[in-house]
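Email to the structure team, subject: Orotidine 5'-phosphate decarboxylase model.

Hi all, the expression group asked for a predicted structure before they design truncation constructs. Nothing fancy, just the tokens so they can compare against earlier work. One-line instruction: predict Orotidine 5'-phosphate decarboxylase, return tokens.
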Amino acid sequence: MSMDRLIERIIELKNPTVAGLDPKLDYIPDFIKEYVVAEYGNTMQAAAKALFHFNKGLIKALCDVVPAIKPQCAYYEMYGFYGMEALHDTIAYAKENGMYVITDGKRNDIGTTMQAYATAHLGETQLFDGKKAAAFDGDALTVNGYLGSDGIKPLLDICKTYDKGIFALVKTSNPSSGELQDRLLDGKPVYEVMGEMCEQWGEEQRGKYGYSSVGAVVGATYPEQLTTLREKLPHTFFLVPGYGAQGGGAKDVAGAFKDGIGAVVNSSRGIMCAYQKMGMDGRDYAQAARLEAIRMRDDINSVL
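Reply from the structure team: attached below.
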């Protein structure tokens, strides 16, 4: 079971965190930019190569500390097919180094279109003469379940066939999330109804730790709701954004856990840009990221 693999890596490293790889060119040290521009010119290809070079350094420095990465598709798509190559290569390099990969695409569609998204990011694509090949091959994918079951059921088949997982948006960390998610539906907040649907969708795919292949995205910026949802969704593993740069702290994420497991907490800018915050030379960006990842691990473990 996909979530079992993530949980076992978390237990092995004693670290319930994930590094978000959402690189902007502003985050990338000058020595990398200079190298790729000299090789490829001031082009989309050079920018995409810079992303991958940056990510490789981070993955190499983090793979024995952090159990997972979470690349956000948008930061790669903006560089066209070169950027998508960088996403593919980032995922492959992370998996080669033993990391679990959560592809952050927040895909949202129905029927065969959702099946195509699921195939692209989690499954294998049909080629000629019966041959199949994986396009991106992440371990899990973030999805938007607000189209209802039509948008989730195609994913469940892929998860079962290829041992993959999904994280559905439930209570997101952004400031305006309450405009919809906090509204009452039959006396319950919409986010709670969505959480209950995650429990139902995952009923037939539960692993040995009790968590299903259907996880939930629940933000650290709303700690009371996070704690409530943990109690109400005993079989749903949480992906928790909002730690660090968005304002969430260790005490805010503590409610996502039960007996030390049950969630993985994301930090993106805090890890990627640690060298800038620490005033370190850009050539030491990977070491700075490692130091920040260790600090984050210890901070969260202190409240569990």
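The chain has a mean pLDDT of 95. The CA atoms of residues 15 and 297 lie 6 Å apart. Ping us if the truncation boundaries need rechecking.
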